[in-house]
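Hello forum,

I keep getting stuck at the same step: I have a sequence, I want structure tokens, and every attempt I make locally crashes halfway through. Rather than fight my setup again tonight, could one of you with a working pipeline run this one for me? It's a single chain of 880 residues.
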Amino acid sequence: MKIRTIITTTVLILVLITISTTTAAAISCDCGDICVNQSGWWRDGGAFIASSTPIQAAVNAATAGETICVAAGSYNENVVIMTPHLTLKGEGADLVTVTAASSSDHVFEVTRTWVNISGFTVTGATGKHEAGIYLDGDYCNISENNASNNDDGIRLGYSSNDNTLANNNASNNDIGIFISLSTYNTLANNNASNNDIGIWMYDSSNNTLTGNTVHSNNNYGIWMDHSSNSTLTSNKMSENARNFGVHGPDCIEYAEYTEYAQNIDTSNTVDGKPIYYWVDQKDRQIPSDAGFVGVVNGTNITVRDLTLTNNRYGVLFVNIENSRIENVTASNNDYGIQLGFSSNNTLTSNTASNNRNGIRLDASRYNTLVNNTLANNSDGIVLVSSIMDSSSDNLLYNNYFNNTNNNVYSDSSNQWNITKTAGTNIIGGSYLGGNYWSDYAGVDNTGDGLGDTLLPYNSEIPYGGDFHPLTTASAPTPICNCTCGNICVNQSGWWRDGGALNASGTPIQAAINAATAGETICVAAGSYTENVDITTAHLTLAGEGADVVTVRAANADDHVFEVTADWVNICGFVVTGATGNYKAGIHLDNADRCSILENNVSDNDYGIFIGDSNNNTFYHNNLINNIKNAYDTGTNQWNSGSEGNYYFDYVGIDADGDGIGDIPYNISGGTGTQDRYPLMQLWNERGSEFISIGSANASLNSTITIPVSVANVTNISRISFDLLYNSSVVTVSSVSANESFTGSSITPNIDNVNGITSIVLTNSNLISALAETPVIDIAIKITGVSGISTSLELQNVEFRDSEFNPYTPAIVVDGMITVGIKGDFNGNDRVDIGDVAKVAFMVAGKVPEDLNADFNNNGRVDIGDAAKIAFYLARKVSEL
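Reply #2:
Ran it on my machine without issues. Output:
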């Protein structure tokens, strides 16, 4: 009986095995040659082969000309396709998701020709320069895919030609679609949104873009970088920080303009307005509905009565002659109006504001600029030369310049004024002459509205200058008594006690030049714009107080105070504005036994920089919002023996509440110098209730957290204020209560359109803090271009006590955000071989060291930093 049971069971098992084998052999694949599901793959009519990476396994098994069908499901793979003439077809981008198994590799990498990929969502390739679909082949078709949350959505690299990208969605990537060094490709009906850059063509010519929708990208919508002879039709760009940009060679390096030649018609729009991009035209006027204006190789062109915003250029002229730009408003572009290789044109009554450069002339001569307003740009007007031609012999007068970085930069000889002529000027004066410069520090002694001192105005103008700068200043009133020292200074000039007033546009420097050893110079309340050199020993320079006397660098590329003599004392000033590389608020060079006391040194590249100087003393100074607060290569004392200085970046604690940090503050410079008694609060505001907001340098499109802090407060139930900022530079993403205090609730009203966020914080447990303590965290998104800054202003500040009675704190400290790209030392918004070379030159001592290149954070620029930026450019490391 048992033997019969065993035989029967054995027969049944054999039958089942036979049936199972027959079923496996009979699996069909109706949509192609090979089918894939989440468990494995099979050929049509073949056996099922299990695999944990079924797509790659199927690709490896396929031969040229075959089609692979991928069924609905989620796959975790990095797929490399090395077989030509292969079609990879997903069941649909809404049904098939392929996530990178390794985020530091492409999801799909194609290295052969005639490969087609469609019907997938590709995601997770977040490593630097990694793509959802990476194409290094010709004659491929990439269509109906969704590429999201990758570094690059879809990338064509290194001579990938004659490919078609159609009906793809690329969103939430760093770059939506990136075409690099590739030609004769077609991009049709793709959507690129919510990326940093929507579509970027780099060094890629003769490509076609048609019917693409590009919107809500944080930087450029469509960016054509050194990519000529491309054809654009019916592309819609909207709500991007910069909708459209085209860039040819930098005119300071080359003398070519052909890379600007494109075939772009008016079916392309920016924010609903047509692009007018004309090549080889003459005797025409740009229509009034233009959203972008680019004219290449033309004559007698008129651009008039337009408002042009949110592109790389408002107006672009390349190789244009005898044309005019009139009454154009260009704002929130990289360049308001740009002329390249263009001559004998007239720019009249235009307004350029909130751009990187208001107006820029590259290798352009014999142009006339009159009655233009350039305000709130990083740089007002820039005139630069190429190796073949200069931006010289231009006439500029009766223009208004009031900008945040430089009003002007010029490397050529131009005419900046006409002779004094009766007529109403741009600021309402009675005479025409030169231009209005917001940083002109001279005075009008004759009352004609033209400056009479500090002539010519030549800030950043190496040849000539403006001999008739426009001014509203009147002649100073003489003051002849000085009771605080040997020499007194006010904003109009200087005088010795009992002597006559000597008018001066740089009164502090003039007083120092007149002083002798052992004298004291007293500086009255007011704002002074100077770069002050002290070369006389045994001199005391005393401001009326760091709360009332501000000295701002006239030239940001020079120190505010530079001391090269011994026994010099400086006290009682706000010292600010030396933002150039290695420039300091106070710089001691071969100066010994000096005392620097009771100053507020803020918003400089270096706060206090000590070079080859010893036995100096520094205490009761506030060092705030400098890129590097203090640097000392000598042997000096940074405290009085019991109290030191306040450093805004000090992160130590004060456990015993005596107002002195428990951990020394390390002074950079390599000598091991420390401030052993760092102050926890501003030296002149200890004991006063105050509120402050932090500052930072941050790269484009990053999000940073800025704290709002309080100190010397007791039993606060409510804090409210308005935060004001330039919304073209930053936006507020969110506001939250800091975890330093329990019981806090917060109500923000964020208005990024107008650049104001109103914040109300209440705390049921009441807030008390002696030391500076964060109470609110503000997440800020960086949207502006590199080099631009915005202040963070706290206004309408109100505290409420435990009885809910309102009052205003004694001290309110504002902050600042500056936009920059780490590693971009040549200012072209990317890290390239020029930046690598510059760091190498720093290491070799060929150019001054810039500690922004100290990528390994060891206090100096060395061979390790040079290697790191080289590896970064070569994509061997993902970040600096």
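Helices lie at 2-25, 54-61, 507-514, 833-844, 863-873. If your local run keeps crashing, start a new thread with the error log.
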